[in-house]
Amino acid sequence: MQSTIQRGQLFWASCLALLVTSLSFGIRAGILNKLGVEFQLNASELGVIAATAFWGFPLAVIIGGLVVDAIGMKRLLILAFVFHLAGILLTIFASGYWTLFLSTLLVGIANGTVEAACNPLVTSLYPENKTTKLNHFHLWFPGGIVIGTLITFFFEKAGISWQIMVGTMLVPAILYGLMAFRLKFPVTERVAAGVSTAEMYKSLGQPLFIFMIICMFGTAITELFTGQWIDVLLKNVTDNAILILAVSTGVMVVGRGLAEPVVHRFSPQGVLLISSVLAAAGIYLLGHTTGNMVFVGALVFGMGVCYFWPTMLGFVAENMPKTGAVGLNLMGGAGMFAVSIYMMFMGGYYDKLVAEKLPAGADLAAYTAAPGGSEMAIALGEAKKAAGPGVLNATLVIPIILVVAFAGLVFYMRGRKKPQQLAVAGA
């Protein structure tokens, strides 16, 4: 083990861990329809399986946030590696609904544990530049989704099985696991500064933090639900639905990499307001256009959701530093919990919209099982073509509400003095 803190290596270990998290999203989004066909699952069942990752995430990130100060970020990241390894292997050898459910839950727990360990790790390593470095760290989330969607696209073209696609996640998982075992980790920023546990929990009750938790519901749903379900929602609108996800997430990679001048120019709250406007415009275009204009919608959507997640965390870390690792992880847990609930609800809503577009009294299961090219299969395709944009239109309400909320936040923060950052005890 290293005897001194290797800031750069720890940051890269965090990025590799987040890469595994994002690959799980990108690859799952790309194989979701394939899993439905192979295991004869309908949209509701696929929605529950996909949502399971979002159940495991808040469970792990909240519990991890509560214990990270006590057990340390090193042990937490090693635990994430163990869950990732188990979840990936179980996915590869899945045999049906319940094994997919359990494997996705394990991956979700691993993903949440990564966030629980790495968000406070990044703020501890870079206390002078939290929002920017959180954006640089979180660029590996869309970066991994781009890599994951390209893996599914090209592997599918080459006729490579989805099990091998999932297996590619083992490479970065093993790398970050080895680094976590080898490197020395710092204590969290709150512990280093000597802020008491009682003071931390008191800070969690302030109205501004509660407001940000509520807003996190909306930003997470806007970004993650839309991205995770793009292939399902727009499969019948365009032949390259999965590439839409690659376009939007590619924009997010570039945007987060260029976060420093953007955040400094507009402030975190200003960035959030601009992001919500662009996200609303992007979802509208995705739901109301066809052909190449769908890719324009994906571009605008990517610009909109680009800064949501890391800037929400950065805002809390900079303006409410005494909330510590628990504050950051409650934000992440709240976001993923909201996505899990929304995803389950919208899976059923999607099936309902599809059923409404079929002939009266039609059996959705029978239409789903119909052979390709048959009259029933064609009718189902047309029904799905109409249902996908309907789900996007329903989701559009969320970023519109966020525009109002963040406009109010910008106004409020103009009259509020930014707090001092935590000073390390004894320094």
Short description:
The protein contains 19 helices and no strands. The protein is mainly α. The chain has a single domain, classed as Up-down Bundle (Growth Hormone, Chain: A), CATH 1.20.1250.20.
Task: Tell me what you see in this structure.
The chain is an all-alpha fold and 427 residues long. It has a single domain, classed as Growth Hormone, Chain: A (Up-down Bundle), CATH 1.20.1250. The chain has helices at residues 7-38, 43-71, 73-92, 97-125, 130-138, 140-157, 162-167, 170-182, 189-193, 197-203, 207-234, 241-257, 259-288, 293-305, 308-319, 324-357, 364-369, 375-395, 397-414. It is globular and about 70 Å long. The two termini are 26 Å apart.
Task: Describe the secondary structure blueprint for this structure.
Blueprint: H1 7-38, H2 43-71, H3 73-92, H4 97-125, H5 130-138, H6 140-157, H7 162-167, H8 170-182, H9 189-193, H10 197-203, H11 207-234, H12 241-257, H13 259-288, H14 293-305, H15 308-319, H16 324-357, H17 364-369, H18 375-395, H19 397-414
Helix pairs in contact: 1-2, 1-4, 1-6, 1-8, 1-11, 2-3, 2-4, 2-16, 3-4, 3-8, 4-16, 5-13, 5-15, 6-12, 11-12, 11-15, 11-16, 11-18, 11-19, 12-14, 13-14, 13-15, 13-18, 13-19, 15-16, 16-18
